Amino acid sequence: MEIPAAASDLSNLDDHYVRSDDEVRDTTLIGRSRRCCVGKKTMWIVLLGTAILTAAITSGIILLVTSLSGGKAKPAGGVKHIGKFDGLSRADCHVSPETFAELSSMAHLGEINVSDPAEIIKYMDFTRMAKKFDRKYDSVAERHSAFLNFRRNHDIVKSHEHNKAATYTKDLNHFFDKDIKAVAAKLLHKIDVYNESNISVTPTDTTATKENQPIYATLKNYSVSAGYPPIGSKVNFEDIDWRRADAVTPVKDQGMCGSCWAFAAVGSVESLLKRQKTDVRLSEQELVSCQLGNQGCNGGYSDYALNYIKFNGIHRSEEWPYLAADGKCVAHDGTKYYIKGYHAAKGRSVANQLLVMGPTVVYIAVSEDLMHYSGGVFNGECSDSELNHAVLLVGEGYDSTLKKRYWLLKNSWGTSWGEDGYFRLERTNTPTDKCGVLSYGYVPY
Q1: Taking every annotated instance into account, which residue ranges of this chain make up the domain Peptidase C1A papain C-terminal (predicted)?
Q2: Chain-centre distance of CA 172, in angstroms?
């Protein structure tokens, strides 16, 4: 759903699954010698017929299946996976009666072949992921839909391994059982920024002083031999990482609510407070429920959110917990935190003037290609103008293995996504750069 036009103030070498206790068990089993994993076709027919007849009462059956994988595929672009667990290539040869009965119970709904060993193996991987993320399905139909989504998402991940031009990896994450198009419709909403004449950036440059020398030395990870940046010199945004200065709060998860605008704004204010020695978690829900200029879970603008915090203050999240729903705006007791205002910029000034001041709210154009991102420097397809997602720009760096410079961004899709909730975006040096990351930026003060 598009946000109605409104005036804004700125108008790894493994398959990379998530590892679970079941996987540890399965790895042990795999180490044993295979017992009768290759059988005759007639044996499969007999076992299949017996299993179908007895599935309703889940009597004891052990179906021995064949591991179909002939070896691990190499990740594209030489990107190293941050290994979680192998899926089809290391499937357990032993299937519990309960697992097979579950799969058989969904067969009548279509698109499931219980006689295919690969199908059984995929379903076992699906159940591991469901356990890892504590998924509960209320009906056979709901489980069936989730499994079909899992298969499609798995195929997308496997197909990406053949993309030799990619410098990033894909993997299953907490979206594993979701229709990715439906997820995108929930989380991504068009962002139009108007009234660009209000853009103002002060100060124009950040220079090294005796007081801030240690901070910028830390941000840029200077070695002792390199010393501090010279007093009076302009601080450049390259190689800055605000996490090194302990100025970034933990990654959060917006859930199935299009509230990225609130999370990005709150993340920037939390970072400001943390640099001022106040480590606090603020309430995104207050913004979702009370910031009337935005559309709650249907999208919004981070500069509106910052204005709200400037004039109304914002409570801590423990006093106003997140619901991943619009909620009601009601008075709450507790401490409120304020900002004086915010600096705003567009284009190269977002990096040159804002990022050197602190973690910066930016808008980007996200495609479905980014949903399964798991590591590396993202160089996939995305628009540079159709902005639809707000994130926090926390740094810039260079990957010596990939020989690429990148932007470092904090997302709000939880820590199972990306590189512990962060992602690295290819730096292209175009006017608004990759995915429009330098289109607009905001830093509170």
Answers
A1: 236-445
A2: 11
Catalytic residue among 149, 173, 294, 411: 411
Percent of the chain, pLDDT > 90?
Answer: 66
Q: Which residues contact 89 (CB under 8 A, 6 or more apart)?
A: 15, 67, 69, 71, 72
Which among 24, 163, 131, 169 is positioned nearest to 85, based on CA atoms?
Answer: 24
Average pLDDT, the chain: 82
Write down the residue that tokens 């070695």 correspond to: 223
Query: pLDDT tens digit string along 351-387?
Result: 999 999 999 999 999 999 999 999 999 999 999 889 9
Say whether 389 is catalytic: yes
329 annotated active-site: no
In terms of Cα–Cα distance, which of 250, 240, 284, 252 is closest to 265? 284
Tell me the residue type at 139: S
pLDDT digits (tens, 9 = 90+) for 87-119: 444 444 577 888 889 999 999 999 999 989 999
Number of helices (H), then strands (E), belonging to the chain: the values are 11, 10
Would you call 225 helix, strand, or coil by DSSP? coil
What is the Cα–Cα distance from 157 to 171, expressed in whole angstroms?
A: 6
422 SS3 class: strand
Residue extents of the structural domains in the chain: 96-162, 207-444
Active-site pick, 260, 290, 297, 435: 260
Q: 58: helix, coil or strand? A: coil
Give the CA angle between residues 93, 178, 420 to the nearest 5°.
85
Q: Which strands form 441-444's sheet, in the order they lie side by side?
A: 168-170, 373-378, 422-426, 404-410, 389-399, 360-364, 441-444, 342-345
**Mapping DSSP to helix (H, G, I), strand (E, B) and coil, where does residue 6 land?**
coil
Q: Compute the distance between CA of residue 226 and CA of residue 175 in angstroms, rounded to an integer.
A: 44
Kindly tell me if the per-residue pLDDT of 34 is higher than 80.
Answer: no
Cite the DSSP H helix spans in 314-413.
Answer: 349
8 A C-beta contact, residue 177 and residue 149: yes
Which residue's structure tokens are 């994130």? 391
Residue 230 DSSP label:
P
Topology of the domain covering 207-444: Cathepsin B; Chain A (3.90.70)
Q: Is 260 one of the catalytic residues?
A: yes
Burial 220-243 (b: 16+ CB within 10 A, else e): bebeeeeebbeeeeebbbeebbbe
Output DSSP code: residue 352. I
List, in sequence order, every residue forming a beta bridge with 202; answer none if it has no partner: none
Q: What is the mean pLDDT of residues 204-211?
A: 76
Of 165, 207, 170, nearest to 82 (Cα)? Answer: 170
Residue 131 — φ and ψ, nearest 5°?
-70, -40
